[in-house]
Amino acid sequence: EPLVESGPAPAVTLDSGTLLRSGRFWGVLIAAGLLTTGGIVITVHVVPFATDQGIGSSHAAWLQSVNGISAMGGALLFGWVADRIGSRQTLGLIALLQATLWSLMLLFPDFNVLIALLVGIGLCGGATQPVFSALLSGVYGQGGFARALGLATLLMMPFTFAAAPLAGWLFDLSGSYTHAFQVQIGAFAAAAIAFLVVLGNAGARSRTPGN
What we know:
- With 211 residues, the protein is mostly helical.
- 80% of the residues lie in helices and 0% in strands.
- The chain has helices spanning 16-20, 23-52, 57-85, 87-107, 111-155, 157-174, 178-198.
- The longest helix has 45 residues, at 111-155.
- The radius of gyration is 18 Å and the shape is globular.
């Protein structure tokens, strides 16, 4: 049975041990971690990436602003999408969109093109955490949501802290952001497969998070 999000659930409290023994919880956690790295990498590296393409520093700073401003609308847009197709599917869609947009960013590093791409990247990045929270709420219910979100936030910290330095290290090795961004695109692709395929057929059932 696929990962199910359903209506109001009994207020059954989950402990951390139960969650940590759950393969489903780890699957969701790792997939979300791979997805969230994109927002961190783009925030830290979009300006040096742009200047590396010959774009002036003032124009490059605009790219960072566009990404940040667009992120504010992402939760509203993809929240609406999640209400219609489900949170897990929406996270998979976000991952696919991110992989596509980052690939286009490598192929067409022109300032005007990058502006348009950063709007989409910002929307996706701003939506990831709210939709992930909605997924946990739908799966674990009132009694398990707070514990699941808190534990997931803690365990995702290695993704948070490693993403930007890893991209910088890959840049230092190659002298280009190509490999760093390709790794990020691979992370998005893995997250998409996890959310749309693996977790959809993982035998995960709402209200039975410990299996």
